[in-house]
Amino acid sequence: MAEKRKFQAIKGTRDLLPPETELWSRVEQTAREVFGTFGFGEIRPPIFESTELFARAVGGETDIVSKEMYSFEDRDESSVSLRPEATASVCRAFIEHNMQALTQPVKLYYTGPMFRRERPQKGRYRQFYQIGAEVLEALQQGQGGAKDIPKDAAVDAEVIEMVMTFFVRLELQGVKVEINSIGCRECRPKYVKLLREELQKVKERLGADSQRRIDTNPLRVLDSKLESEQGIIAGLPRIDEHLCADCAKQYAEVKRQLGLRGVAYKENWRLVRGLDYYMRTTFEITAQGLGSQNAVCGGGRYDGLVELLGGPPTKGIGFAIGEDRLILSLQEARGGSAAQGRDVYVAWMGEKAQAIAIAAAQRLRSEGFRVELPPMEQKFGKALGQADKLGSRYALILGDDEMASGQWTLKTLADGTQAKYTEAGLLEFLKSRKGNSARV
Ligand code: AMP
To answer: What architecture is the 344-434 domain classified under in CATH?
Structure first.
């Protein structure tokens, strides 16, 4: 006999189940609505791509590419990887579908799973979900340079405004926006050189990760959370004091534009992004109830990434929201997940009543009510108990009396009151009570 094996979801992955999945759907639906009002369209890129795409776009030195990707050799011996993020795919698609020929900028959003082999903990998974958006603008003849600064800054600010509009719509609590500028190809290398020199001087006092990053990615030392390093980092040179004139101008303009849009923010010179391709504007948004993994959104500008992937000179700005964390924070604020509930539990008894119950359920469902129709007849006492357990708002009682009189009984479970309705009257009553029914 085959050995009995108990299968479990792989470490860092999990099943999302009702009623929680209802909240996931609502969050995604809200994203679609809000992003749609800002003129964004949906893109659904594949979940795996050539490993080289991520190595090139995200950067071979990053933790994501060097340690965390799920890569495998396909049967034709090419190396493919589960996507650790989607910006690389969106840029690849922009090039592949010649989107520079469309009206610029091209505004796209996506939702879906990403994969990184991180150490799992609350709010950090190996399969997690992101909701993100990108604004891509291929440069036309004579475009680019300093004269584009006000335009770019307005685009940056509008993208942040869009995320905040989404979060406000969801009533996400304790939301804080932090912004920074990490310079450009002109000024950042000079700052990184200076930073590296200063870090060398304090190397002995840093932890192993930061010591390693002095060579590989010194900017990342700045977002170290290690308690013992905080005092040292506070004394390091700040990037905002080393921005070139254009970057400084752009940063000031982003702040002005955020002000115009009523977006409150805090500046944080230590905010750098883990991915190589960012430049100038970077931002991060945190929310309450998430402990150490409190970043729900990260984003920034990445002019030049499309070109790096073989496309035309193109500007880009985007963000990714961690949907798992967004959901955790929403649940935390409302104290656990809401019961899914039913609007109407149809309690029926008798063959004649079953036909009427089926027709009533069909009618109510077509009107959008959540209806539970038990497959077998039940004594009314048991049926009402069941209705209660399912979090039903009403029980529709269809028995011999109701069949004889044509008057149906509707019981409100919260207070036990009952009233009689004709079929038409019942529908009218339930419709008048919609809106405050059991919804997530
Ligand atoms: P990133 O793509 O690294 O800029 O991350 C953007 C957002 O995705 C973060 O702010 C998190 O909210 C979320 N995120 C990143 N990695 C994970 C993970 N392993 N598990 C859950 N959420 C994540």
So the answer is: 3-Layer(aba) Sandwich (3.40)
